[in-house]
Amino acid sequence: MAKQQAKKIRRNPLNRGLRRRFIWLAIGLTVAVTVSIVSGCFTREFTPDSSREPRAAIVDQLYAFDQPNQQFIEQVTDALESYGFQVDLYQGDEVTVDFYRNLPSRGHKLIILRTHSGLIKMKGEAVVKTSLFTSESYSRIKYVREQLNEELVKASVGEGYPFYFAIDSKFITRRMKGNFDDTVIIVTGCSGLYFDDLAQAFTDKGASTYLAWDHAVGADYVDGATIALVKNLCVDGLTIDQAVAETMAEKGRDPEQGAALKYYPKDSSNKTITELIKR
After folding, report:
1. Beta bridge partners of 154
2. What residue spans define the domains of the chain?
C-alpha cells in the first residue's frame, strides 16, 4: 500500500462547509451474520520526542461523504494550535482500515475522529456493540481474517447507499499496532458512548480519556459542539468535567435526538489536557 502523508492545515477564508443537517444512520453486517446500525449513525512509524511540540490529528472521514466543513477544520485547528499542538489533517479516502490499524504509531496526543459511527445488532437480536466507519469500500475478499473474527463490519449510511468497512472494539484491541501515549480521543459520530465498548478499547490501548455523544447526532450540531469542547479544553484550560459541562450549557443536547456529551473513564474528570497528555 502506498505511503500516505499527513496534510498540514490549509487556510481557506471561504466556509465551504455544507449546512445541511442529517442524522447519521448506518446498516452493518459481518461476513457470518447480518447486523444493522440502529443509531447511526502510509504506515509511518513515529517515535515521540518530548522536546518537540505535541501533535494532534483531525481525522475527517466525513469529507469522503460530501460533508466537508472548512469552518470546523479551521476553528478546531486554531484552538489546538493555541495550546501548542502541531496539527495533522487526514481526510476522506485516507481513512482506511490500515489507517486505523496504524493510528497509535502516528504519535498524536489528541485525536478528533469526525466520522460516521453507529450501534450494531445481530439480525433479530439486541444491540451488541459500536462501530466507526472507514472511507474504504467494502469487499468480501479483503481483510478476511478480521471479518471472520468479527473485528470489521460492512456498513452503509442508509438503505441503497454503498457499503464501507467499519471497525469495532475488537479491531482496536487486537489489530491496532502499538499503543496510544496518554492520548485524548474525541469521537463526533453517533452513539460513541451509548455503550462504553469503544471507550474501554481505546483506554485499554493507552488513551487517557475518551469523549463522545450517547445517542444519534446531527452534523451541524455536533460540529459546533465539538468546536466548543476543544476551545474549552485547549484555550480555556478547563478540566474534562468542566469542559463537558460548559459545552453542554452552551450548546445543549442535540435538538433532534437529545444526545448528550459524555466522557470515559470517570477518574479523568478533574484533569486538564496538560495532565491528560502528561506534557
Report:
1. 29, 165
2. 20-42+54-276
Cα dihedral sign, 223-226-230-232 = positive
Domain formed by 20-42+54-276, architecture: 3-Layer(aba) Sandwich (3.40)
The span from the CA of 202 to the CA of 176, in Å, is 10
Residue-wise DSSP of 104-143: GGG--SEEEEE--EEEEEETTS-EEEEEEEEEEEP-TTSS
E strands of the chain, at which residues? 7-8, 27-29, 35-37, 55-60, 86-91, 110-114, 117-122, 127-137, 152-156, 164-168, 184-187, 209-213, 261-264
* CA pair distance 116, 118, nearest whole angstrom: 7
3-state DSSP assignment of residue 36: strand
Measured distance CA(208)–CA(274) in Å, rounded: 11
pTM of the model: 0.83
Q: What integer is the mean pLDDT of 79-99? A: 97
The per-residue pLDDT for 157 is 80
- Would you say 192 and 61 are in contact if contact means Cβ atoms under 8 Å apart? no
Residue length, the chain? Answer: 279
User: What percent of the residues of the chain are helix, what percent strand, and what percent coil, each to the nearest 5?
Assistant: 30, 25, 45
pLDDT tens, position by position, 96-132 = 999 999 999 999 999 999 999 988 876 666 778 999 9
Q: Is the peptide bond before 265 cis (omega within 30 degrees of 0)?
A: yes
Report the DSSP beta bridge partners of residue 88.
Answer: 8, 57
Are 136 and 65 contacting, i.e. CB atoms less than 8 angstroms apart?
no
